[in-house]
Amino acid sequence: MPASLVFLCARKVVSDHGCALRSLASLPQELYPVLFKAAFLDQRPLVIGELVLRWPERVLSLTRSLRACQHCCLDLSRDWPSRDCLQAVLLAVVKGLRERDRRDRNALRVLDLCGVQDEGGRREPNTMGSWFRTVALSKACLEARGRRRGGESTPKRRRGVSSPAVEVEVRADLFVNGSSFETVRQALRGGGPLRLVCRDLRAEELSTQRTASLLDMLEPSALRRVDLRYNNLGLAGIALLLPRLASCPSLLSLRLLYSNVDVHRPTPGMEAGLRELAGGLGGLLNLREINLTSLRLSGKLRLLLSALERPLEVLELPYFSLTPSDLSYLSSSPHAPALRKLDLSGNSLSVEQLPSLQRLLSLSRSLSHLVLSGCSLTDSLLGALLPSLGLCRGLQSLGLSLNPLSTRGLLSLAHTAICLPLLQLLVYPQPTDCYEEGLPQPPSYYNLMEFPLDQGKLARATEELRQVLERAGRADLVLSTDLYSHSTAELLKGRSKEWRHTDRPASKTSSTLGLTHTRLLCTDLYSHSTAELLKGRSKEWRHTDRPASKTSSTLGLTHTEVCFNTAMSVVHSTYLE
């Protein structure tokens, strides 16, 4: 749908700062949201600042303002935000706090930055990620507090007439690590006219004490998601933090990634610690999502999950070292029929565990996203699993990468996949018969990632899979062998409509085969993003996820294991939004 005349005029107005400044006073306030979106689209930070200073409503929600609307079908909220535009918003809010006539010009009391894009989407050079945004927000709070204390924003008062301080509440998702902790801590404590409220918290590489103090400074009623990773918490650290989370009534999601807990390395008091951990989880009354990546708690799943008050909708257990008893419990638990996402990647599945997994899939009729990557699934195991998988009619994405499957096994998988009406994404492994001679048997997922491929065999296998989709009329189903593909994420999340409608080659290989993104995505495992992640060369990945950090080394995790799981979690973790 083309932009409306109103939006086209708005873009013309914001194209010149001087013109916009002269026009704002005479324009109806109802047009401010349209002007705001137009200014963000064309990256006009000066105009954005003027609009925020004069914002006519009590609440300014960035994501809501940038979504598709009646005047413009573009959804800018699904792209990484422009650094200049976002800084212009913050500077204008701080400036507005010290304007003496602020209450006459600006009604803004809540700035909502929750849900700003951090992963996937189109990322342009001049954008701001979650870590930098957290630091910028914290510094804005400190600046506003300093100006208030310095007397710049204190208005003259008439005797006997109170003039309460104007405050703006900033709601945001925060990413805190060792580099940003002190700045965020100062912003959260001590009050001030700009009050920072956290909805989703990600804390990385912090000590238990720092994590606890951070949680103590947050507003419990606002906290919705907590993501603690690479923090080396151990059982004692997790047990210390869970009572603090129990006071958060809106907490829906808890992620404890790489927390250095392993029942295969018993320590004194471990059993008591596990019972305390289970009791702490039971205190999270509204929990719907839990991620226990690399908490090697073999045989303890019943103890942990039976303590929960309500069934889970999202359960992620990569590298949990699942036992047959764990899967048996899960398949008969109240969680099975309620699950919308299940991630068991990195757990070696055997014939003994197969009946429980079959029963689990047959019960999980609400399942939308399933990840069984790196689970040692062979052709025979997958073949036995396919009938149960075919019952998951609501499945939208399926991850089976890094399993030792042949072309024959993949063709059977493809025939099952085309019968799942809602399936949009299938991430599959390179066929074992498409590698060069000498592939170790059975191959590990490291072998499947690193061993050279026979490009001729791979092209023929790819063509066979393409024909299965073509004959079934499933051009909407995306097949990919890429652990992390920007284009795949775009297609599945609907974030970039041009990917759906443009016959754009995905790679040199797929271009040779005449394939397009809408039919078969990149058959090259090492896209730019994945290669950068695996080689540890991307500063953005190292800064945010730090897969090869000294913390992960301390936890005894291999570089390949951490990189693989990080990449898979990016592809599949946010599709439920």
The N- to C-terminal Cα distance equals: 24 Å
Widest sheet: strand ordering: 1-2-3-4-5-6-7-8-9-10-11-12-13
Shape: globular
**SS field, number of helical segments:** 26
Mean pLDDT: 81
The radius of gyration over CA amounts to 26 Å
- Roughly what fraction of the amino acids lie in strands? 5-15%
Q: Total number of β-strand segments?
A: 13
Strand count, sense and barrel status of the largest sheet are:
13 strands, parallel
Which percent bin holds the helix content?
Answer: 40-55%
Structural class: alpha/beta
Which ranges are low-confidence, i.e. pLDDT below 50, for 5 or more consecutive residues?
Answer: 152-164, 486-577
Short description:
With 577 residues, this protein is of the alpha/beta class.
Explain how this protein is built:
This protein is of the alpha/beta class and 577 residues long. The protein is built from 26 helices and 13 strands. Strands 1-2-3-4-5-6-7-8-9-10-11-12-13 form a 13-stranded parallel β-sheet. Helix 13 links the parallel strand 7 and strand 8. Helix 15 runs parallel beside helix 16 and helix 17 runs parallel beside helix 19. The longest helix is centred in the first third of the chain and has 20 residues. It is globular. It starts with a helix and ends in a 5-residue tail after the last helix. The C terminus is likely disordered.
